[in-house]
């Protein structure tokens, strides 16, 4: 069975968020709040930790392309991005993003799963 999860990421840097608890201070990019792997998984992870997920003015909805979430973080329109697993690695393979400049928040490790992930894994 194939699984996937959600990723919470920012750019590396001294003023970048370091945990999910920091997100209330930053703008978060997502395609939209209805996307399972690019908002709802991350929001649920925050709720499980007793945190309020971003909403309202704290969310930059970039539309239907998750790559636009990454570009919004890279160009400074948002400090944090929510995307599904595999997207950052795919963009890195295409030389569209340098993973050395990306910080994964709430990083998790799952046996047999080798992609960056910030949430529980779900069946695809």
What does this entry look like structurally?
The N and C termini lie close together (8 Å). With 124 residues, the protein is an alpha/beta fold. It has a five-stranded mixed sheet with strand order 4-3-5-2-6. The chain has a single domain, classed as D-Maltodextrin-Binding Protein, domain 2 (3-Layer(aba) Sandwich). It is 23% helix and 20% strand. It has helices at residues 36-48, 66-74, 87-93, and strands at 3-4, 6-11, 28-30, 59-61, 80-84, 102-105, 122-123. The protein is built from three helices and seven strands, in the order E-E-E-H-E-H-E-H-E-E.
Secondary-structure map:
Layout: E1 3-4, E2 6-11, E3 28-30, H1 36-48, E4 59-61, H2 66-74, E5 80-84, H3 87-93, E6 102-105, E7 122-123
Parallel strand pairs: 3-4, 3-5
Antiparallel strand pairs: 1-7, 2-5, 2-6
């Amino acid at each position: 069975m194939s699984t996937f999860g959600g990723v919470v990421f920012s750019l590396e840097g001294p003023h970048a968020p370091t945990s999910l608890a920091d997100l209330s201070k930053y703008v978060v990019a997502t395609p939209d709040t209805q996307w399972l792997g690019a908002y709802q998984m991350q929001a649920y992870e925050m709720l499980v930790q007793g945190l309020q997920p971003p909403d309202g003015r704290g969310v930059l909805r970039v539309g239907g392309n998750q790559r636009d979430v990454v570009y919004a973080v890279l160009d400074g329109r948002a400090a944090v991005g929510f995307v599904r697993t595999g997207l950052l690695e795919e963009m890195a393979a295409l030389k569209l993003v340098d993973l050395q400049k990306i910080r994964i928040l709430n990083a998790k490790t799952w046996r047999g799963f080798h992609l960056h992930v910030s949430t529980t894994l779900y069946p695809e």
